[in-house]
Amino acid sequence: MNLLSVLLINAGAIAAMMFALWAISLRRRDVSIVDIFWGLGFVVVAWITCLTAPGEAGRRWLLAGLTTVWGLRLAGYLAWRNHGKPEDYRYRAMRDAYGERFRWISLFLVFGLQGVLMWIVAMPIQVGPSSAAPWHWLDALGIVIWTVGFLFETAGDLKLARFKSEPANRGQVMDRGLWRYTRHPNYFGDFLVWWGLYLIAAAGGAWWTAFSPVLMSILLLRVSGVALLEKSLKSRTAGYEAYVRRTSSFFPWPPKEEPPAR
Question: Which of 86, 122, 197, 255 has a 20 to 30 Å separation from 142 between CA atoms?
């Protein structure tokens, strides 16, 4: 099967999954399930590609395996974190703004848009396996970067979950562990994961898919990640302004010294 066929099959699979997920969201009156499915959607794309694409078998299985580990962990964590909680405030605001029209608007603006983004971001794991290029040092570098990113976001999420489980920490700043060096270790880890996957795909000749990790980086930094979350945290977390002043926004860096009180 050629590359174009693989891309079209994946596009059709994503469209079908998003439509089914939208139908489920109507019954549950909860659009937040789309966030849980974000990681799982990439897993489906990775395995469709692995089983249908031509190319070097080792790289096909490697990309599918790494994507699966990342996607299942993310989906599992979000499902656990959101269990028993109401719909995310972002979607509630949209629901209130659009009223009855929200059910149709959510199909295109939430599920449809996320499906398109998923297909674009997943380009390295769709194109990389189609190459017959032999193993390259970029494969090894990509594995190392992916591993650091995966461990970074896993450790960050675990530490944050433990912090939030303590009632005394409610409304307080989380500035321990990795959170002492970056305000968003989970997003930084995600950033490394996708650049690692890209490098493995580039080793197979798919260097032109660099727009995928670039797009993911923009989403994490400017759209649905850091920028959106910081707006919310500044308004509801005590001491967050001081935390911002001393802690790197994204890339890990030793915290700045607080100026002495006058």
Answer: 255
